Amino acid sequence: MSLLEVERVSKRFGGLTANEDVSFALDAGQIVGLIGPNGAGKTTLFNCVAGYFAPSAGSIVLGGHPITGLPPEDCARAGVGRTFQVARTFGSMTACENVMTGALLAQRSVVRARRQALEWLAFVGLDRFEDKPAASMTVSEQRRLAVARALATRPKILLMDEVMAGLNPSEVREAVDVVLRIRERGIACLIVEHVLEGIMPIADKIVVLDRGRKIAEGTPAEVSSDPQVIAAYLGGEA
Amino acid sequence: MNQTINASAGLAALAALAALALPAMADASHLNLAILVLMAAQLGVAWNIVGGYAGQISLGHAAFFGLGGYVSTLLLAKLGWSPWIGMPLGGLAAALLSLGFGWSCFRLKGHYFAMATIAAAELVQIFFTEWDYGGGAVGLYVPMDRQGWLWMNFATKQPYYWLALALLLATLAANLWIERSFLGYYLRAIKDEPDAARSVGVDIARYKQVALSISAFFTAMGGSLYAQKELYIDPGSVLGTALSIKMALVSILGGVGTLLGPVVGAVVLTSVEEFTRILFGGTGRGTDTIIYASLIIAIAVFYPSGVLGWLHSRLRRRAVPQAAVAPAPQGEAP
Amino acid sequence: MTAELLLQTLASGVLIGLIYALVAIGLTMIFGVMDVVNFAHGEFLMLGMYSSFWLFSLYALDPLLTLPLTVLMLFAFGTLLYRLVIRRIINAPMLSQIFTTFGIMILLRGVAQFLWKPDFRTIENSAVSGSVQWLGLQLGRPQLVAGVGAIAVTAAVYLFLHRTRVGAALEATAADKEAARLMGIDSNRMFSLAWGIGAACAGAAGGLLSTFFPIFPDVGATFILLAFVVVNLGGFGSVTGAFWAGILVGVIEVVGGLLLGPQYKTAIVLVLFLGVLMFRPQGLMGKA
């Protein structure tokens, strides 16, 4: 049985259908990329898995337990970690305190949370920012901070929403590094990405969405030579 | 950085000494002024728990203040219970009332939340105005027949000073405990980025309510103390929206979301009020109101982080984006 | 309780509701265009009332005659207030915005009290006084004229928004500030205009009220609450919504007062307010 099973999930907003009948699965320790042109419904799907939207139809099961329609905080407790397109770090806190907020999910001791937070900061390579205000970090650093914060909740699966957008090539390499290290820890990753040169080399599987529907699923090689995928990217806005 | 810590510690020690020595040295009117400062500070610290830390701008806190005063006064007047029992019971009543406030208001954001709290508090005021058993519009006189520490009723001002100081310290202690515990982190997260807070497992509805209930509890205790000191309460003086504004203003003036901001704010606000009252108050022409209002506008427009925020930014060398200014909302692609 | 009494109450509810609508239209426009809640809006009404009063007392000019002058003065005042103060807090945190307008509210009340004393004033024997018989109902002539005046001003505002280029620009800014800016619309000027019109509407309401309602520095307090309820019920930003919601709130307030007692009029309105906030925050016609 897979770690995450997304089964025929649809999401409608009034007259607009953002996701239509999307199904795929993810196993423990896998890196799965979710790609597609703008407006394909990738972030909407994320929001369904992470609990920000309740799917209009379909089910989502994590580690054998259904999480469909649970609010975000309950999804987090069930083992879903996520980042946002805009990092949304806690501006009034230091980097360490940001990560501590995540660490406090599993246990309430502030002292222990601080220790764990420092470990996670080192894990993503931000340990030098320990007591610096999060608001003083660059965009790519804040993105990594958000990843550390999500990791501190000890998720089973980490949803990353365009972590690599707008990064220069060396920053992309750093981000890829972090994702690989996360996989080493046994945490599965579901990654929405436009920066294909970042995600294609490392993904075990790619799922392609276009206009709310899944149009392809397979290895990066299979997907990149799929004529439907090519048409979607060339025909629509890329 | 160490200089700042040493300076703060020094100031704190000085303040503590002054606070302890004051009753012995001040005359009656100055002592009364000090008590007013302490009470305003306590209310500001209590408001700050939900308004400053959790970022929920409540403009209806007078409901809790008044409820505390009414509960302890009614228990004393009708059942003969000592205010020492009445005070915490008033606090509990306010915490219960805050559940109603939270349920009706917390799903609202920003301006709507503030307006809803005003409406809810005004409903409470109307209730007490029409409730004859509780004195109605005329209000209640607090029984003075029994005096002494058991009945929290004194002929001189000094014991009230100690009580006000003790309550302020208790409220500060609660605030400090929250700040240092997981709750402190959660509340700040809720204030900064509610969606991101939920993504790390924070149940924002629950923790906002916790903050509000604790805040209501301490605010109500302040109301009981006020009743015992003034020996008279009525809906106009303890349940009005103007009072709610003042409780929020004390924190904003001093520095929202900081531990001692409300204390500083209380000193400044009470001083300004006293000063304008002495200079202009007698005429009844509203000059003190004009000055008070100008102060509010000036702070809101030019110094939103309050006195402490201003001091902090002067002491810091680095130019760092102020956390007090919320980042502009950014759109995200579907 | 006879049908006649009910009908009478309904009629007065509609008439006063039209005034509420006019006040609310100003408030909703400011919110719709720039997302700022103006807690000082009631004070524009108060100033309109005093303008009417002083022109009548000092120069024997009838309020109906001086209404256009009152409207112009309040328009100028609203614009001035925007340029001096509000402009600075457009992008400030919400706490600052709330307290700035709250501060202005307290300031204007204080200034009014200082200049004109807290005494209640009234305008006696203006051109419209006495009452009128219509379909068996007794309606005060000032109230009737005020109601008609409110409709007229509302219609003028509506036509302005929907039939003029400037009005269209205002609506565009309300819908999407950034897009409007890209099309060359100066947001600052639009905000200034919104404040001017908002103040003018409230001032007009004040002028119309002055013929039958007592005038005193804190009179804004009564109307600001009602204005909020109306704006909320009609939908923040919707002028048509504010119009119909105003009438509805007027009727509910007056009929409720008849059924439960006048001391509960405010409570009924507050409960309605909370109810709408909780269960239909976008109101009848508003954007969420």
Order of helices and strands of chain A: EEEHEEHEHHHEHEHEEHH
Q: Distance between termini of chain A? A: 35 Å
Output the number of helix runs of chain A: 9
> Which topology of chain C does CATH recognise?
ABC transporter involved in vitamin B12 uptake, BtuC
Helix proportion of residues of chain A, in percent? Answer: 25-40%
The chain pair forming the largest interface, with residue counts per chain, is:
B-C, 44 and 42 residues
**Spatial shape of chain C:** globular
Description:
- The complex is a heterotrimer of chains A (238), B (334) and C (288).
- Chain A is an alpha/beta fold and 238 residues long.
- Chain A folds into 2 domains: 1-79 and 155-238, P-loop containing nucleotide triphosphate hydrolases (Rossmann fold), CATH 3.40.50; 86-154.
- Chain A has 9 helices and 10 strands.
- In chain A, the strands form 2 sheets. In chain A, strands 6-7-8-3-9-10 form a 6-stranded mixed sheet, sandwiched between helices.
- In chain A, α6 links the parallel β7 and β8 (188-192).
- Chain A starts with a strand and ends with a helix.
- By secondary structure, chain B is mostly helical.
- Helix content of chain B is 73%, strand content 1%.
- In chain B, α2 (28-53) packs parallel to α6 and α3 runs parallel beside α5 (110-130).
- Chain B has helices at 2-25, 28-53, 62-79, 83-105, 110-130, 158-180, 182-192, 194-199, 204-230, 235-238, 241-254, 261-280, 287-302, 306-315, and strands spanning 140-141, 232-233.
- The model of chain B is unreliable at 322-334 (pLDDT under 50).
- Chain C has helices at residues 3-34, 41-59, 63-84, 94-116, 141-163, 165-175, 177-182, 187-209, 220-234, 239-260, 265-279, and strands spanning 131-134, 137-140.
- The model of chain C has no long low-confidence stretch (mean pLDDT 89).
- Chain C has a two-stranded antiparallel ribbon with strand order 1-2.
- Chain C is mainly alpha-helical.
- The chains are: A alpha/beta (238), B mainly alpha (334), C mainly alpha (288).
